[in-house]
Design goal:
This protein folds into two domains: 19-116, Fumarylacetoacetase, N-terminal domain (SH3 type barrels, Roll); 124-413, Fumarylacetoacetase-like, C-terminal domain (Fumarylacetoacetate hydrolase, domain 2), CATH 3.90.850.10. The protein has 418 residues and is of the alpha+beta class. It has helices at residues 68-73, 75-89, 94-97, 100-106, 131-142, 237-243, 266-269, 326-334, 362-365; strands at 19-24, 31-36, 39-42, 107-109, 113-116, 124-127, 158-160, 166-168, 173-174, 177-180, 189-192, 196-197, 200-206, 225-232, 235-236, 257-259, 264-265, 273-274, 294-295, 298-304, 312-318, 345-347, 373-374, 380-381, 389-397, 402-413. Strands 6, 7, 8, 13, 14, 16, 17 and 22 form an eight-stranded mixed beta sheet that branches. It has a five-stranded antiparallel beta sheet with strand order 4-3-2-1-5. The protein starts with 18 loop residues before the first strand and ends in a 5-residue tail after the last strand. Helix content is 16%, strand content 27%. It has nine helices and 26 strands. Belongs to the FAH family. Ca(2+) binds at residues 126, 199, 201. Residues 125-408 form the Fumarylacetoacetase-like C-terminal domain.
Length: 418
């Protein structure tokens, strides 16, 4: 229990304490904060209170404009910092609670803060780890008998995305332009994408660092997973369909990827861990782990068109539907000696469940445009229209509290092709 009042439906309970980067009009400097209730605790103003054996030597990390330096300190430092925060924010601890001057300056209302990207993202990798999603897409493009490619059940499939176009929630996204071939009997055409889509994903930030040639064994993978965010992997399906053979996504993906601003630490998610998916055939030894590392995170996607008064929820899914775990993703990513750096971002791939309501993309919800998605009396979609605001949100439900991620929001603007 904290001395800061937190509503039971708030995503930012005392059990959460996510990290983010914020600024205010009064202080435009970007700084590290921790969300609790409707408040942000400014860590740059209380860095001297971190007196543990690891952080006390590195208090400067809380003066940085990104989380990279803190992420670089590693697993023991993250655990120590969390324990210090829990102590300082607890109802029985007077250090912050009773220091009127420090408390008034160190806490900022979220309503007056501007949120920024949590880290300087050097590299971004997107996996493809939902079996239901991969199966759905495979059926659409290859038929039911050849839905999953032979490698899918053997390893976590992924591709390297574009880190420069990862943006924080609230950033508007222009409809991309590119080559498409809507009529297979005619040459390709150039213009704005007509099949713009969202993809409901989650992603984790990497902490610690490895050298080139060094792999992360699966037994140590959790020590490099700093925390998680929501992610919208915007996708131009028609551009992607024409370009992806044989090397995979390119212009259909790299025009924008949106993440939520608050990074929820893995320690906050551990109470909501679920048994891993049954994996058949059994993965190779370097991908095997028996401790559960799938999490019960309720996920929602809504769309609000320009003519709509209220958003319409069109997807209700859950992170527990994932087939490959984050540990397996990271172990596979580095098994060939690929080095990682603090702030690297690794995404889950579209999160879909077994029923239509849990499909995490419009490609699936509309079944490649063959079905209509009803948003309101006059609002029908197969894919996104200009002006559509897409909101993703997610939380774990505890006993009288939530551990949530806030929102991941983006609005589609017309293309810049004029």
């Amino acid at each position: 229990m904290s001395f800061i009042k937190v509503n039971a439906t708030s995503h930012f309970s005392f059990n959460n304490l996510p990290y983010g980067i914020f600024s205010t009009t009064n202080n435009p400097k970007r700084r590290i904060g921790v969300a609790i209730g409707d408040q942000i605790l400014d860590l740059s103003l209380i860095k001297s209170l971190f007196q543990g054996p690891v952080i006390s030597k590195h208090q400067y990390v809380f003066d940085q404009p990104t989380l990279n330096a803190f992420m670089a300190l590693g697993y023991e430092a993250w655990q120590e910092a969390r324990k210090t925060l829990q102590m300082l924010l607890s109802a029985n601890e007077s250090t912050l609670r009773d220091d009127v001057s420090l408390r008034s300056s160190a806490f900022v209302n979220q309503s007056v803060a501007t949120m920024h990207l949590p880290a300087n993202i050097g590299d971004y990798t997107d996996f493809y780890s939902s079996k239901d999603h991969a199966t759905n897409v495979g059926i659409m493009f290859r038929g039911k008998d050849n839905a999953l490619m032979p490698n899918w059940l053997r390893l976590p499939v992924g591709y390297h995305g574009r880190a420069s176009s990862v943006v924080v929630s609230g950033t508007e996204i222009h409809r991309p332009v590119g080559q498409m071939r809507p009529d297979q009997t005619k040459p390709p055409v150039f213009g704005p994408s007509q099949q713009l889509d969202f993809e409901l994903e989650m992603a984790f930030f990497v902490g610690g660092q490895t050298s080139l040639g060094q792999r992360i064994p699966i037994e140590k993978a959790h020590e490099h997973i700093f925390g998680m965010v929501l992610m919208n992997d915007w996708s131009a399906r028609d551009i992607q369909a024409w370009e992806y053979v044989p090397l995979g996504p390119f212009l259909g993906k790299n025009f924008g990827t949106t993440i939520s601003p608050w990074v929820v630490p893995m320690e906050a998610l551990l109470p909501f861990v679920e048994p891993n998916s049954i994996q058949e055939p059994k993965p190779l030894p370097y991908l095997q782990h028996h401790d559960p590392y799938i999490f019960n995170i309720n996920l929602f996607v809504s769309i609000k068109g320009q003519g709509m008064q209220q958003p319409k929820t069109i997807c209700k899914s859950n992170f527990k539907y994932m087939y490959w775990t984050m540990k397996q993703q990271l172990a596979h990513h580095t098994v060939n000696g690929c080095n990682i750096r603090p702030g690297d971002l690794m995404a889950s791939g579209t999160i879909s469940g077994p029923d239509a309501e849990s499909f995490g993309s419009m490609l699936e919800l509309s079944w490649r445009g063959s079905k209509s998605i009803t948003l309101g009396d006059k609002e029908i979609r197969s894919f996104l229209k200009d002006g559509d605001e897409v909101t993703m949100t997610g939380y774990c439900q505890g006993d009288g509290y939530r551990v949530g991620f806030g929102e991941c929001v983006g609005t589609i603007l017309p293309s810049l092709q004029h």
